[in-house]
Amino acid sequence: MCLRHGWKQKEIAMEVGVHKSSISRELKRNWTQDRYRPATAMSKATERRRHKGRPRISEQTWAEIDIEIREELSPEQISGTRSLRGQYPVSHERIYQHIYIEVVICTLI
After folding, report:
1. How many other CB atoms sit within 10 Å of the CB of residue 15?
2. Which of 17, 70, 92, 105 could be cross-linked to 75 through a Cys-Cys bond (beta carbons 3.0 to 4.6 Å apart)?
3. Which of residues 50 and 25 earns the better pLDDT score?
4. How many other CB atoms are found less than 10 A from the CB of residue 91?
5. What's the CA gap between 49 and 51, in Å, rounded?
6. Pairing label, strands 31-32, 35-36
7. Long-range pairs of 56-62 with CB within 8 A, sequence gap ≥ 24
8. 39 and 46 in contact (C-beta within 8 Å)?
């Protein structure tokens, strides 16, 4: 509606309270044929959100990591060697989280 009334992207951004690049990105992402259609933009956003996300780390991968933890390898070593061996990468931060969760669960049981 604002575009039809001749508003610039910068003016729309100020009115909505976002950075002008957000308006530009929104228009680029959701411009259909000859104009911006809010209903179409909303359905596209919902669809993008539905397909968003990283794949989960499999139980098999955690089993391999648990073996390496028991062999007293550090999370940094485990993460680095997995990459070198071409295995599914897991960051050392995520391995530390996994260890912490395991310790808390074992403590609570």
Report:
1. 11
2. 92
3. 25
4. 12
5. 5
6. antiparallel
7. 57/88, 57/90, 57/94, 58/88, 61/87, 61/88, 61/90, 62/98
8. no
